[in-house]
Specification:
alpha/beta; single chain; four-stranded antiparallel sheet; 13 strands; globular
Length: 360
Amino acid sequence: MPSSSLCQDETCPPYSLMDDYSEGAHPQILEALLRTNASQQVAYGGDDYCHDARQLIRDRIDCTEDEADIFFVPSGTSANLISIASCLRPYEAVITLESGHIACKEAGAIEATGHKLILVPAVDGKMTTINLRKAFQQNQFFPHMAKPRLLYLSNASETGTVYTKRELTNLSALCKELNLLLLMDGARIGTALCSKKNDMTLRDIYDLTDIFWIGGTKSGALLGEAIVVKKALAEGFIFHLKQHGALLAKGRILGVQFMELFREDLFFALAGHANNMALKISARFEQLGYKLAADTETNQVFVILPQRLVQRLQDRFRFYTWEQLDDGQVVVRIVTSWATDELQVDRFNAWVEQWTVANA
């Protein structure tokens, strides 16, 4: 992994543990973009690189071109918005967790297309079959209520937890029983698949969902997500890309990046590094007696800290204040990335230990 110089000077800018997209792109991706830059290609995703990237992704899934289409879009919001808008009628609704990205991080993008969001409480950051069935049953007063038609999940979840194969199998079976489509947001699907808690493959996810997408933005690419759509839902999908401004003339830029991510094991190597850095941070917190607010299963660490320690750390590191607790303590979110410098992780852990020992 790329490493930065370890800055000990108080004047150095704080090191970011805020998110997994503070850095630009992995050097191999930048090199691939430069290497292919002068090649003249067909526009709007019809280029050789998008074609090769689609085939590499299908090979990883173990599916054929007859089974699934793959579309590249520039962002996660566009991936969610287009996936949902493409397969729902105006009166149909989406069931999502209260903490779901489409519910609280996308500025009402789904509602702006005319689709109601039915909000459900999370359990360990995830949807359960009990909560899904209850939400479905509570929204059956037709035609006065929007009709539930799609279940939205994210894997990893907003609190970094991952779905097991059994959990996703049970949710998928219930969706079929209730005639619901299943969409999986894969902004952090790389870290989910590389989690020590994971027991699924890309093929399992393909089999158990109707649409899912593979995040590149948070996995070492400059930008871009790859939406995997089963053939039954793929007809006309490209028109939705165009109408929503996501069909790039220079689609090659997305194709080159995904080709490089999946040509060998770069996508999974980068996700594994992010997870390992998060585990190193969370393990030290637990060794020092701090309580985790959520299990660290991927690259997000949620921990409860004293306000004074948070203020001390914020002089040297950037991270997100997730929740202010009634007892004066704070839940913070620390996110590691494909590029997180292990020396900076060691420095972070050392500051935590130093403050803890001094204030014991």
